[in-house]
Design a protein that fits this description.
GO molecular function, one term: glycerone kinase activity
GO cellular component, one term: cytosol
Shape: globular
CATH topology: Serine Threonine Protein Phosphatase 5, Tetratricopeptide repeat
Mean pLDDT: 97
Bound molecules: adenosine-5'-diphosphate, magnesium ion
Structural class: mainly alpha
Radius of gyration: 15 Å
CATH class: Mainly Alpha
Pfam family, one: Dak2
Keywords: Kinase, Transferase
Low-confidence stretches: none
Protein name: Dihydroxyacetone kinase subunit L
């Protein structure tokens, strides 16, 4: 079973990965965006880590809801409300249970990803974070490592796509040939599950 500590480790592992990869994420956002994705998420996830230390919410749902709220209030770009919605909706779906199973997490995360698609209007193949998140959720039944591989493959597979949502879509065909920054950061988020599971779960 996964308790609030697991979810806290998930968020801090993601914050550390975003810190490590911030320059790379910003570099990916340079040819097809405005070169701020790394700094946007770094600001957001640092705020998440700080808030979780101070407030120590005691259920999985409360950890994710608080994290989502922080992302919405600290990240300026399009990705803030989208990631914030993902975590808040996933947290809401987990309810008030003190511990949840991996199946429950998979169902909740699917509800979160559906909410991101409803908010942003993106579908798989539009060259967005959805292209990493949907394969990850589909693979989650086979474990965290399978989900992380699926997310990474999904992010890499955005390179030949033409963007149909977000800032990159303004470039039309010129968005082809570049990996999507948001799909890349989503793969970091899913990889955080593996780390959270390995470190004391
Ligand atoms: P901004 O585009 O406002 O500068 P960021 O650079 O932080 O915001 O985030 C860009 C990423 O957000 C994109 O790479 C893409 O994955 C994701 N994104 C943008 N618009 C959407 C959308 N409508 N639906 C899903 N993801 C989106
Ligand atoms: Mg940007």
């Amino acid at each position: 079973m996964l308790d609030a500590d697991f979810f806290r480790r998930w968020m801090t592992a993601t914050a550390a990965a975003v810190d490590r990869e911030a320059d790379h994420l910003t570099a990916l956002d340079s040819p097809i965006g405005d070169a701020d994705h790394g700094s946007n998420l770094q600001r957001g996830f640092r705020a998440v880590a700080t808030t979780l230390e101070k407030e120590s919410p005691d259920t999985p749902g409360a950890v994710l809801t608080l994290a989502g709220r922080q992302l919405i209030s600290t990240v300026g770009g399009a990705s803030g409300p989208l990631y914030g919605t993902l975590l808040r909706r996933t947290g809401k779906a987990l309810g008030e249970a003190a511990e949840v199973g991996e199946d429950q997490l998979a169902d909740a995360l699917r509800a979160g990803v559906d909410a991101v698609m409803a908010l942003g209007g993106a579908a798989p193949g539009d060259k967005t974070m959805i292209d990493a998140l949907v394969p990850a959720v589909d693979a989650l039944g086979d474990g965290f490592a399978a989900a992380a591989s699926a997310a990474t493959e999904g992010a890499l597979a955005t390179t030949p796509l033409q963007a149909r949502k977000g800032r990159a879509s303004y470039l039309g065909e010129r968005s082809i040939g570049h990996q999507d920054p948001g799909a890349t950061s989503s793969a970091l988020l899913i990889a955080g599950l593996v780390e959270a599971g390995a470190n004391g779960g």
